[in-house]
Amino acid sequence: MLLPQIFLRRWRQRKKANSYSLALALRPMRRSTFLPDMKELGKVDGLLQAGDIILCTGETIGAKVITKGQKLLNDNARSSHVALIHADFVCVDAMPGDGVTNRLVSEVLTKVKPDWRVIRCKKLTQEHTDAVYRACAYYLAQPYKILPSKKPMKTAAYCSELARKVFLHTGITGIGIPNDSVLTPGRFDDLVDNHPEWEDVTEQVRPAIDFCMKYPELMKVSARLMIEGLKLNRKRFEERKEQVQQIQLLASRKKIPKEKAKEMIKAIREIENDMNHKFWDHSKAKPQFTSDAKALSESAKLFGITPHFLTLLSSTRARNAFTKSESPDLRLSVAAAVAESSAVTPARSASVPIA
User: Is-above-0.85 flag for pTM?
Assistant: First the structure.
């Protein structure tokens, strides 16, 4: 019995030693495949700057149509898409469906022609970096809409329109970006080819682009803190916006005093004004109490039910029957309370300013 145990022990030791040797042999390969060397990382750090613009042409039929259409106005036009460097390897970009979001450089340059370019405004210096950061964050979650407009759109954006608004936000002038004519991606091709305040830095930043394309998963992990942090800021902003709407609603129903509503909304506005990042739909204007019809619609949307259902709840009998029921759905209970306060006279239903 002792001899088989000795052989078994030796076999296990050899297996363990072989596994360890295999791990040692594979470790350099895994490192070179998935993780960059610190020297490699140091060589690309700082090559891309906030405000750099990526010009590229997609491989889709739509991209080809855009490129050919632009050539009617500008022979030098060759780009169908524009993306702006927000910070390091993260872009701010306007895309159909997603609207304005943060995307990695590797995501922007996936499925595009290899003749992409990176251009830089010479007037954009280190002192403008913070302004670019804030401007890029400012337009996050703006809807995507291709609506050629001579003036910058306030509530929507497409790729080149977004770049225009970010640069206008910084206050830099004399760089050839128009504020009174339709802007297309091809216009940026024309700027870098002909305007003295723009330069092509493609070869200068190519090592950084190659680094992003080589380690996309690493870039995703390193950028997660920034991207998720801005998403959280945006979510908190939307929550405060809903709070203001609810305060206005309750004040219009005289559920809370008007002066109390003013104080509550003022406190929320002060919080927003102290935030480092503000957003495009942040309003500094004095809020208005909404009318009954509009308030009813907004409440229904907020609580996820139909305005018709809220209207039915305005009946005293229906309200009493509903509120006394042991419904597990808290949203409907709150909606019932809101609907209860909707039985007001026409004099109370008018829009009343807070101040």
Answer: no
